[in-house]
Amino acid sequence: MFMRSLILVTGLFCAVFAHAADEPATKWEAGTAWQPIDPPVPTSTGSKIEVLEVFSYACPHCAHFQPYAEALKAKLPKNAEFVLMPADFQPRWVAFARGFYVAKDLGLVDKTHQALFDAIYRDRRPLNSLDDIAGFYAGYGANKESFVSTMQSFVIDGRIAKIREMEAKYGVDQTPTLVVNGKYRIVANPDKGIGFDQMVEIALQLVKQESAAKKH
Predict the structure, then answer these.
(1) Three-class SS state of 142
(2) pLDDT, position 1
(3) Whose C-alpha in 20, 37, 59, 199 is 20 to 30 A from the C-alpha of 127?
Protein backbone atom coordinates (compact mmCIF):
# COMPACT_ATOMS: atom_id res chain seq x y z
CA MET A 1 0.00 0.00 0.00
CA PHE A 2 1.28 3.44 -0.82
CA MET A 3 0.70 6.70 0.99
CA ARG A 4 1.97 10.10 -0.13
CA SER A 5 4.62 10.19 2.57
CA LEU A 6 5.14 6.50 3.29
CA ILE A 7 5.70 3.36 1.21
CA LEU A 8 4.96 0.17 3.08
CA VAL A 9 6.64 -3.14 2.38
CA THR A 10 5.34 -4.81 -0.79
CA GLY A 11 2.92 -7.61 -0.17
CA LEU A 12 2.15 -6.73 3.45
CA PHE A 13 -1.59 -7.04 3.13
CA CYS A 14 -1.42 -10.07 0.88
CA ALA A 15 0.71 -11.85 3.47
CA VAL A 16 -1.41 -10.82 6.43
CA PHE A 17 -4.79 -11.32 4.78
CA ALA A 18 -4.30 -14.04 2.19
CA HIS A 19 -7.81 -15.51 2.21
CA ALA A 20 -11.03 -15.10 4.15
CA ALA A 21 -13.29 -17.29 2.02
CA ASP A 22 -14.16 -19.62 4.87
CA GLU A 23 -15.25 -16.85 7.20
CA PRO A 24 -18.92 -15.99 7.54
CA ALA A 25 -20.19 -12.82 5.93
CA THR A 26 -19.73 -9.79 8.17
CA LYS A 27 -21.99 -6.81 8.57
CA TRP A 28 -19.47 -4.08 7.95
CA GLU A 29 -19.99 -0.75 9.65
CA ALA A 30 -19.15 2.86 8.76
CA GLY A 31 -15.97 4.16 10.34
CA THR A 32 -14.53 0.66 10.69
CA ALA A 33 -14.76 -0.91 7.26
CA TRP A 34 -15.39 2.16 5.17
CA GLN A 35 -15.39 5.93 5.50
CA PRO A 36 -18.23 8.16 4.32
CA ILE A 37 -17.38 10.77 1.69
CA ASP A 38 -19.03 14.05 2.61
CA PRO A 39 -20.24 15.61 0.47
CA PRO A 40 -20.79 12.73 -1.98
CA VAL A 41 -18.99 13.05 -5.31
CA PRO A 42 -20.98 12.85 -8.57
CA THR A 43 -20.31 9.65 -10.49
CA SER A 44 -19.47 9.05 -14.14
CA THR A 45 -21.73 6.04 -14.69
CA GLY A 46 -25.15 7.62 -15.14
CA SER A 47 -27.90 5.59 -13.52
CA LYS A 48 -25.53 2.75 -12.63
CA ILE A 49 -23.84 2.39 -9.25
CA GLU A 50 -20.19 3.30 -9.67
CA VAL A 51 -17.45 1.17 -8.12
CA LEU A 52 -14.21 3.04 -8.70
CA GLU A 53 -10.69 1.77 -8.04
CA VAL A 54 -7.97 4.35 -7.49
CA PHE A 55 -4.75 2.60 -8.52
CA SER A 56 -1.37 2.94 -10.16
CA TYR A 57 0.64 0.62 -12.34
CA ALA A 58 3.63 1.80 -10.27
CA CYS A 59 1.98 0.47 -7.08
CA PRO A 60 2.90 -3.18 -6.40
CA HIS A 61 -0.05 -3.54 -4.03
CA CYS A 62 -2.35 -2.62 -6.90
CA ALA A 63 -0.78 -5.46 -8.88
CA HIS A 64 -1.53 -7.80 -5.95
CA PHE A 65 -5.07 -6.42 -5.79
CA GLN A 66 -5.75 -6.96 -9.48
CA PRO A 67 -7.19 -10.51 -9.14
CA TYR A 68 -9.47 -9.22 -6.38
CA ALA A 69 -10.56 -6.33 -8.60
CA GLU A 70 -11.42 -8.81 -11.34
CA ALA A 71 -13.40 -10.91 -8.86
CA LEU A 72 -15.26 -7.81 -7.71
CA LYS A 73 -16.12 -6.86 -11.29
CA ALA A 74 -17.44 -10.37 -11.94
CA LYS A 75 -19.72 -10.21 -8.89
CA LEU A 76 -21.22 -6.79 -9.54
CA PRO A 77 -24.93 -6.73 -10.43
CA LYS A 78 -26.04 -5.39 -13.80
CA ASN A 79 -26.94 -2.04 -12.27
CA ALA A 80 -23.32 -1.40 -11.20
CA GLU A 81 -20.21 -0.52 -13.19
CA PHE A 82 -16.50 -0.81 -12.37
CA VAL A 83 -14.33 2.22 -13.19
CA LEU A 84 -10.58 2.83 -12.97
CA MET A 85 -8.89 6.08 -11.94
CA PRO A 86 -5.09 6.32 -11.84
CA ALA A 87 -3.40 8.06 -8.91
CA ASP A 88 -0.65 10.68 -9.22
CA PHE A 89 1.26 10.43 -5.94
CA GLN A 90 4.73 10.41 -7.52
CA PRO A 91 6.22 11.52 -10.88
CA ARG A 92 6.40 7.96 -12.21
CA TRP A 93 2.76 7.47 -11.25
CA VAL A 94 1.85 10.55 -13.30
CA ALA A 95 3.63 9.07 -16.32
CA PHE A 96 1.56 5.89 -16.04
CA ALA A 97 -1.61 7.95 -15.54
CA ARG A 98 -0.87 9.82 -18.76
CA GLY A 99 -0.40 6.52 -20.57
CA PHE A 100 -3.60 5.13 -19.09
CA TYR A 101 -5.73 7.98 -20.42
CA VAL A 102 -4.23 7.82 -23.90
CA ALA A 103 -4.74 4.05 -23.92
CA LYS A 104 -8.31 4.53 -22.73
CA ASP A 105 -9.05 6.91 -25.61
CA LEU A 106 -7.60 4.33 -28.01
CA GLY A 107 -9.72 1.53 -26.55
CA LEU A 108 -6.67 -0.39 -25.33
CA VAL A 109 -7.19 -0.58 -21.56
CA ASP A 110 -9.11 -3.87 -21.57
CA LYS A 111 -6.26 -5.48 -23.53
CA THR A 112 -3.41 -3.92 -21.62
CA HIS A 113 -4.44 -3.48 -17.97
CA GLN A 114 -3.32 -6.86 -16.67
CA ALA A 115 -0.56 -7.05 -19.27
CA LEU A 116 1.04 -3.85 -17.99
CA PHE A 117 1.08 -5.13 -14.41
CA ASP A 118 2.65 -8.35 -15.73
CA ALA A 119 5.27 -6.46 -17.71
CA ILE A 120 6.35 -4.50 -14.63
CA TYR A 121 6.15 -7.07 -11.82
CA ARG A 122 6.46 -10.43 -13.53
CA ASP A 123 8.70 -9.66 -16.48
CA ARG A 124 10.66 -6.85 -14.73
CA ARG A 125 10.44 -4.75 -17.87
CA PRO A 126 11.96 -1.28 -17.25
CA LEU A 127 9.12 1.17 -17.87
CA ASN A 128 10.33 4.41 -16.36
CA SER A 129 9.74 7.11 -18.96
CA LEU A 130 6.99 8.31 -21.29
CA ASP A 131 8.95 6.76 -24.15
CA ASP A 132 9.13 3.40 -22.34
CA ILE A 133 5.41 3.45 -21.61
CA ALA A 134 4.55 4.39 -25.18
CA GLY A 135 6.75 1.53 -26.34
CA PHE A 136 4.71 -0.88 -24.24
CA TYR A 137 1.44 0.31 -25.77
CA ALA A 138 3.00 0.18 -29.25
CA GLY A 139 3.05 -3.56 -28.76
CA TYR A 140 -0.75 -3.41 -28.73
CA GLY A 141 -1.16 -1.38 -31.88
CA ALA A 142 -0.54 2.21 -30.76
CA ASN A 143 1.71 4.50 -32.76
CA LYS A 144 4.61 5.21 -30.42
CA GLU A 145 5.39 8.75 -31.58
CA SER A 146 1.75 9.80 -31.53
CA PHE A 147 1.28 8.16 -28.12
CA VAL A 148 4.17 10.11 -26.59
CA SER A 149 2.92 13.36 -28.10
CA THR A 150 -0.61 12.81 -26.80
CA MET A 151 0.63 11.97 -23.30
CA GLN A 152 2.15 15.46 -23.17
CA SER A 153 -0.89 17.25 -24.59
CA PHE A 154 -3.05 19.86 -22.89
CA VAL A 155 -5.94 17.40 -22.93
CA ILE A 156 -4.02 14.91 -20.82
CA ASP A 157 -2.68 17.72 -18.62
CA GLY A 158 -6.32 18.51 -17.85
CA ARG A 159 -7.03 14.93 -16.89
CA ILE A 160 -4.06 14.84 -14.55
CA ALA A 161 -5.34 18.00 -12.89
CA LYS A 162 -8.74 16.31 -12.58
CA ILE A 163 -7.12 13.34 -10.81
CA ARG A 164 -5.78 15.65 -8.13
CA GLU A 165 -9.15 17.27 -7.72
CA MET A 166 -10.91 13.92 -7.40
CA GLU A 167 -8.35 12.51 -4.96
CA ALA A 168 -9.03 15.48 -2.69
CA LYS A 169 -12.79 15.05 -2.96
CA TYR A 170 -12.61 11.32 -2.28
CA GLY A 171 -10.04 11.75 0.52
CA VAL A 172 -7.70 9.27 -1.16
CA ASP A 173 -4.16 9.03 0.19
CA GLN A 174 -3.26 5.42 -0.57
CA THR A 175 -3.75 2.74 -3.19
CA PRO A 176 -5.57 0.61 -3.94
CA THR A 177 -8.67 2.47 -2.78
CA LEU A 178 -12.24 1.61 -3.71
CA VAL A 179 -14.92 4.30 -3.88
CA VAL A 180 -18.54 3.13 -4.08
CA ASN A 181 -21.01 5.47 -5.77
CA GLY A 182 -19.04 8.53 -4.79
CA LYS A 183 -20.15 8.03 -1.17
CA TYR A 184 -17.95 5.43 0.51
CA ARG A 185 -14.15 4.96 0.64
CA ILE A 186 -12.65 1.53 1.30
CA VAL A 187 -8.99 0.69 1.95
CA ALA A 188 -7.08 -2.27 3.34
CA ASN A 189 -6.21 -1.82 7.00
CA PRO A 190 -4.49 -4.59 9.00
CA ASP A 191 -5.35 -2.94 12.32
CA LYS A 192 -9.04 -3.32 11.49
CA GLY A 193 -8.75 -6.78 9.98
CA ILE A 194 -9.41 -5.59 6.45
CA GLY A 195 -7.44 -7.16 3.63
CA PHE A 196 -8.17 -7.41 -0.07
CA ASP A 197 -10.85 -10.10 0.36
CA GLN A 198 -12.63 -7.89 2.85
CA MET A 199 -12.41 -4.85 0.56
CA VAL A 200 -14.33 -6.80 -2.06
CA GLU A 201 -16.88 -7.98 0.48
CA ILE A 202 -17.41 -4.46 1.82
CA ALA A 203 -17.79 -3.01 -1.67
CA LEU A 204 -20.43 -5.60 -2.57
CA GLN A 205 -22.31 -4.88 0.66
CA LEU A 206 -22.36 -1.17 -0.17
CA VAL A 207 -23.47 -1.83 -3.75
CA LYS A 208 -26.33 -3.90 -2.37
CA GLN A 209 -27.17 -1.07 0.03
CA GLU A 210 -27.17 1.48 -2.81
CA SER A 211 -29.30 -0.81 -4.97
CA ALA A 212 -31.89 -1.10 -2.22
CA ALA A 213 -31.92 2.68 -1.74
CA LYS A 214 -32.61 3.20 -5.46
CA LYS A 215 -35.77 1.11 -5.18
CA HIS A 216 -37.33 3.44 -2.62
Answers:
(1) coil
(2) 58
(3) 199
At 24 the pLDDT is: 40
User: For the chain (length 216 residues), average pLDDT per consecutive 10?
Assistant: 46 42 60 92 96 98 98 98 97 97 98 98 96 98 98 98 97 97 96 94 96 82
Position 16 scores a pLDDT of 41
93 - beta bridge partners? none
Q: Are strands 49-55 and 80-86 parallel, antiparallel or unpaired?
A: parallel
DSSP 75-117: H--TTEEEEEEE--SSHHHHHHHHHHHHHHHTT-HHHHHHHHH
The correct CATH number of 2-214 out of 3.40.30.10, 3.90.600.10, 3.40.5.10, 3.20.20.80 is 3.40.30.10
Q: Which residues contact 141 (CB under 8 A, 6 or more apart)?
A: 106, 108
Q: How far is CA 145 from the centre of its chain?
A: 27
pLDDT at 15: 42
Instruction: Report d(CA 93, CA 15) in Å as an integer.
Output: 24
Residue 61 has phi, psi (to 5 degrees) of: -70, -30
